[in-house]
Amino acid sequence: MSQSPEARAAEPGIAEGNAAVRRRYPFDDTADLDDARRGFLGTARDRVIRDAGGRAVWDLDAYGFLGQDCPDTANPSLWRQSRLCSGHGLFEVTDGIYQVRGFDLSNMTLVEGERGVFVIDPLLCAETAGAALALYRSHRGDRPVTGVLYTHSHADHFGGVRGVTGDDEVAAGVPVLAPRGFLDHAVSENVYAGTAMNRRAAYMYGAALPKGGRGQIGAGLGQTLSTGSVGLIPPTREITHTGRSETVDGVRMVFQLTPGTEAPAELNIHFPDHAALCMAENATHNLHNLLTLRGAQVRDPRTWARYLTEAVDLFVGSSDVAFASHHWPVRGRDRVLRFLSEQRDLYAYLHDQTLRMLNQGLTPLEIAERIEMPPALEQAWHTHGYYGSVSHNTKAVYQRYLGWFDGNPARLWEHPPTEAGRRYVEFMGGADELLQRARRSFADGDFRWVVQVVNHLVFADPDNAGARQLQADALEQLGYGSENGTWRNFFLMGALELRHGAVGTPTSTVAPDLLAALTLGQLFDALAIRVDGPRAWDADIAVRFRLTDGDPVTLRLRNGVLTHVPGTGPAAGEPDAEITLGEATLRAVLLGATAPGELTGRTDVEVTGDPGKLAELLGHLGGPDPGFAVVTP
After folding, report:
1. Strand bridging mode 245-248 / 276-278
2. pLDDT of residue 135
3. For the chain, which end, N or C, has fewer CB atoms within 10 Å of the first or last residue's CB respectively?
């Protein structure tokens, strides 16, 4: 079992808290373990999945330590969940439906058709998806991929598509299905705020942590993110409404659209010939996120609960098994009904009780501390907050309805962390006094207070070694006690940054395929986000692109804002330069593959006006920082 050399043992209060968890819950209940093992056919002989250059992108044996007894540096409930998630291999769900689990954060589902196999959710990267398909074929024969379906717009459900099929196959007729709005949400989420989301995802999934009892043990929804090549093949068929049916290679499917649930574009699938129901990521073996810690738009638990009710009404009466894009299946109609009903009640309760309390004047922090889940839900393993949490989900509900401000004017115009930190340290009698008091709080086991207080000193004096060490030690203890995998990872990654500085971001979803899938309007919007506003305040530049294969569009930079205006009307104004070119050439320039100066002299490009204006305009764009610090200034 690996561990960081700086990692401390669990403090007595954390160890006792973890022991209390074992006494509180039914750890002798083996139903989930039996379900997770059922249908196992085998796993890969080569336990390390590598990219074309030989770099490891996934290690099937990395979590073998979870077979040992849970140490007191891990919450036993999270340890149990991680052990269940770490099982890897090919599993039969029901006759004709298989899943490869444990080869990435998500599952890949394979449904056998008349000629080949229909692939659902081809993981995050091409390498793991390719290995999953190879494992399936080693047991079920070399069946061709006759269709692909993305259940929703998160990258771990489409990013590996090039590991199972390619552009030539799709052009030859292999369909790619997805819910309405998939492409817009898939590319915008991963591009507009992609750098910041990927950076925070590195903390959420504990990417740089050593695997082991004092390090990363999982993320609740799965183990972690693979680090291979992310791609995207745009859908060729869009599922537009609930009740729509499709047949691909003899595989009959009936769809339920569930927009605004776990993803902005998502669907569930019923397989009438298999009495099987795929719940995508709308019902998994944990409480999901209403606002993921990596960042996203706040999800709607009220809508989520209603779609789960609808799924019960539409499909449970003809479903003998329910499976999802994470975790393991639930079998038996009575169990499927109970599972989906409890999942429904989980999201509805969080929504309704948060609204009840906010209407009584409670703030997000107060609601998060006071809310109690019903005992029946608390005793169901699949409702536990391994990935989402009751605490941050209630805050998300509050944010959805009332925003970030809790109504107290004392928090309307607070100092930013560095300025507030300096003032707090001075008020507390200086750095030495603050540290002395914080160390007493640490000894008393009040780690939440330690990280809140010492954070002020870290931001006031980032070079204070004592503050960084104490903050790291306290965050580490909070991680050891957390039932939530993403909380644990954030706490332990924070400790890692404090001890060693900011670490990199190993997985990026801002991939060439996603950039290529942006509409021109989305690409212009993505560039506008990169304008250094203050530096561009005095700039006034307009460049019109006359597309040989499309309508003209004018880019204008003025008042630090980059706008794009279709056509040549009054809103477009008069350009400083006009450039006639094809869309592919324009994309190459905007994405940096072709320098503006290279356009001059090309036979397929015509430039009138000032040829230097395009380079001047693009010169006002800055680049994101994929390695920014998270817990230090």
Report:
1. unpaired
2. 98
3. C
CA atoms within 13 A on the CB side of 233: 26
Looking at residue 125, the DSSP 8-state letter turns out to be: S
Q: Of 281, 175, 180, which Cα lies nearest the Cα of 222?
A: 281
Instruction: Tell me how far apart the alpha carbons of residues 284 and 220 are, in angstroms, rounded to a whole number.
Output: 10
Residues in the chain: 633
Query: Locate tokens 């998630």: which residue?
Result: 85
**Residues 11, 368: Cα–Cα separation, whole Å:** 25
Among residues 479, 490, 391, the alpha carbon closest in space to that of 72 is found at 479
**At 86, which helix (H) or strand (E)?**
helix 76-86
pLDDT at 194: 84
Give which of 506, 517, 489 is closest to 51, Cα–Cα: 506
Q: For residues 343 and 283, is the Cβ–Cβ distance under 8 A?
A: yes
Give the residue among 151, 180, 179, 174 at the shortest CA–CA distance from 162. Answer: 174
Paired with 179 in beta bridges are 239
> Which tokens hold the place of 149?
């379906």
10-residue mean pLDDT series, the chain (633 residues): 72 98 95 97 97 96 97 98 98 98 98 98 98 98 98 97 98 98 89 87 92 97 96 97 98 98 97 98 98 93 97 98 98 98 97 96 97 95 98 97 94 96 97 98 98 98 97 98 98 96 73 84 91 94 94 94 92 93 94 91 92 94 87 92
Within a 10 A sphere around the Cβ of 247, how many other Cβ atoms?
A: 12
> Which positions ≥6 away from 561 have C-beta within 8 Å?
528, 531, 533
Q: How far apart are CA 221 and CA 198, in angstroms?
A: 17
Strand 267-271 and strand 276-278: pairing? Answer: antiparallel
pLDDT in the model for residue 1: 44
CA distances from 590 to 379, 387, 584, 596 (A): 54, 38, 10, 9
Angle at 530 between CA 525 and CA 533, to 5 degrees: 105
Q: What is the pLDDT of residue 509?
A: 65
3-class DSSP state of 99: strand
Tokens of 137: 């074929």
Q: What share of the chain is helix, strand, coil (3-state, %, to 5)?
A: 40, 15, 40
Give dist(CA 118, CA 246) in Å, integer: 12
Amino acid letter at 185? H
